[in-house]
Specification:
Layout lengths: L1 E12 L6 H7 L1 E18 L8 E4 L3 E4 L8 H9 L6 E7 L9 H16 L6 H15 L7 H8 L2 E6 L5 E5 L4 H10 E5 L6 H10 L5 H19 L5 H15 L9 H12 L4 E4 L7 E5 L5 H8 L4 E2 L3 E2 L4 E5 L6
Parallel strand pairs: 3-5
Antiparallel strand pairs: 1-2, 1-13, 2-5, 2-6, 2-12, 3-4, 6-7, 8-10, 8-11, 9-10
C-alpha cells in the first residue's frame, strides 16, 4: 500500500502566461507557492476476491471489471498509460474542495503518477512527475490548462517558474529570509466563494480571446517582473505586494467575462473596504477561492465582512509531492 500527499498551490502573479498558446510565442512565468492543504491518495493492489477488478473511491465509488469502464478520466487514462494489469484500489481524500482554483486536479494527477510508480518500487523525480502530469492533462485528456499547476504540485515551495518559447521551463526558488516569509504568510487569507468550476472550461474562453488581449498579458508579465524585484529587496514590503496583487486582479478580470461575477466582485470590494491591501481570485477564475492580502490586525474585520464565506487559514509548504507511507508486506 502507498499513500501520497500532494500540495495545492496559490498563484500570485503571471497566471495565464503559463499556457503554451502564450509562452511558445512570448515566453511566460508565474510566481506561486504551495500551501499546507493537500490531496491524499491511497493505492494498493486489490485482493482477487471480489467481483470487480478495480475500485476507485472519490466523490463517487466506482467498482469496475476493466479500465475502459472507469469514469474518472485521469484514473482511466493513467491506468491505460501504465498498462495496469493487476487489480487496484484507489482512495482520494482532499483538504479542500475540488474545482476551487488551487490546482487540485493537477495535484491529483501528480499524486496518482507518484503512487503508481511507488507501488512498483520506483522513485519519481519532481521533473518526471511534472512533465508526465502535463502530458496526461494536455496531450492525452486534451484539457485547456497551463503548465504551472503540475510543476508547483510536484516541486513544492515558493517559486518563480519561467516558461521558455521552446517549451522548456525552469523552477527558480524565491529566497527570502524567514522573517519576511513569515510576515508575508501572516498577511494572507483564503476565502471560499462557494462556487466550484472546471478550470479547463474557463481557460478555453481565455485562450480563444488571447490574440485580442496581448497587451493585458504583457501587463501581467510586467507585474511579475515588479514582484521579482520586490522579493529581491533587503526589506520585503507586504503592502506593496498586496498592491501588485490588486493591479494584477484588475488586469485578470478584463481577460474574459467568466473570470469574475457580481458575487466575487462583492466579496472583493468588502475585503478592500475592511482594510485589505489587495487580492485576487485564485486560478482561472469563475469561482473557487479568493486570496486576500491584509494586515493581521484587519483579519477579524475582513472575516466579519465576508461572512458567511468560509475562511481557510494557510501556511506555505516546501516539500511538494511525497510518499508518506509505503508498505510492501501485502501483495497478490
Amino acid at each position: 500500500m502507498v499513500i501520497t500527499r500532494t500540495p495545492f498551490r496559490v498563484s500570485f502573479f503571471g497566471g495565464g502566461t503559463d499556457r503554451y498558446e502564450w509562452f511558445s510565442e512570448n515566453g511566460g512565468g508565474v510566481i506561486s507557492t504551495t500551501i499546507d492543504k493537500y490531496c491524499y491518495l491511497t493505492l494498493r493492489n486489490l485482493p482477487p476476491f471480489f467481483e470487480h477488478k478495480h475500485r476507485i473511491v472519490y466523490s463517487r465509488v466506482e467498482n469496475v471489471t476493466n479500465i475502459d469502464e472507469i469514469q474518472h478520466p485521469v484514473v482511466r487514462e493513467v491506468f491505460r498509460l501504465f498498462g495496469i494489469q493487476e487489480g487496484k484500489e484507489l482512495h482520494h481524500d482532499g483538504d479542500l474542495p475540488a474545482r476551487s482554483g488551487l490546482g487540485s486536479s493537477s495535484s491529483f494527477t501528480v499524486g496518482l503518477l507518484m503512487a503508481i510508480q511507488a507501488l512498483k518500487g520506483h522513485f519519481s523525480s519532481k521533473s518526471w512527475l511534472a512533465d508526465m502530469a502535463i502530458r496526461v492533462e494536455r496531450e492525452i485528456l486534451n484539457e485547456t490548462v497551463g503548465y504551472q499547476d503540475q510543476i508547483a504540485a510536484a516541486y513544492g515551495g515558493l517559486n518563480h517558474i519561467e516558461f521558455k518559447k521552446n517549451g522548456e521551463y525552469e523552477v527558480k526558488p524565491i529566497l527570502i529570509n524567514e522573517d519576511a516569509r513569515n510576515n508575508l504568510q501572516s498577511h494572507l487569507m483564503l476565502f471560499f466563494t462557494g462556487v466550484g468550476r472546471f478550470s479547463s472550461d474557463v481557460s478555453k474562453v481565455q485562450v480563444q480571446s488571447m490574440g485580442q488581449k496581448k497587451d493585458n498579458y504583457a501587463n501581467l508579465t510586467q507585474l511579475l517582473n515588479e514582484a521579482k524585484t520586490l522579493f529581491g529587496r533587503n526589506e520585503f514590503n507586504v503592502a506593496e505586494f498586496g498592491s501588485l496583487l490588486h493591479e494584477g486582479w484588475l488586469i485578470k478580470r478584463s481577460l474574459s467575462k467568466g473570470i469574475t461575477s457580481n458575487a466575487i466582485d462583492g466579496m472583493y470590494e468588502k475585503a478592500m473596504k475592511a482594510g485589505a491591501f489587495g487580492g485576487k481570485i485564485i486560478g482561472a477564475g469563475g469561482g473557487g477561492f479568493l486570496l486576500v492580502c491584509a494586515p493581521p490586525n484587519k483579519h477579524k474585520q475582513i472575516q466579519d465582512a465576508l461572512y458567511p464565506n468560509i475562511y481557510v487559514p494557510v501556511k506555505f509548504e516546501n516539500s511538494g509531492a511525497s510518499v508518506i507511507h509505503f508498505d510492501s508486506s501485502m501483495s497478490f
